[in-house]
Amino acid sequence: GGTLETRFPRLFGLTLEQETSVAEMCSLGWGVGEEGWRWRRRLFVWEEGLFEECCLLLANELDKWRWLPDFDGVYSVSSAYYWLTHQAPMDPSSHKDVVWNKLVPLKVSLFMWCLLNNRLPTKDDLIRREILDGDSALCSGACCKEETFSHFFLRM
Question: Where is the Reverse transcriptase zinc-binding domain (predicted)?
Fold first, then answer.
């Protein structure tokens, strides 16, 4: 397993196809001497050995999905939850291409924008804007915690 960049960093640094998808490489051919590989320069003899090893791995190994946040590469709800709750805070502007995608319904885009910018009316937000009084801060889910953005969506 692993990516070309991690398994064969020397070859990755020399290829002109660093942004090419696996599907595109398959259509161009990625065996020795095929068009899928374009190099910045001719490979040295020892690099050709690396390349042959890489092609051998590609020919003999099945492609499969791996869940990168988990050590074993297996997705589970608990690993996804752990990954989501232990992330550094995200910059909302870094997701504008996903949020404002033309294929996503406008109401979903608006909800995601509000979610990422902490603009949804949780109880702590309504208290801060003086719409609710301070006595109403607890979550209505009977968990006796203050209803904040992170508690409401991530149960923290």
Answer: 75-154
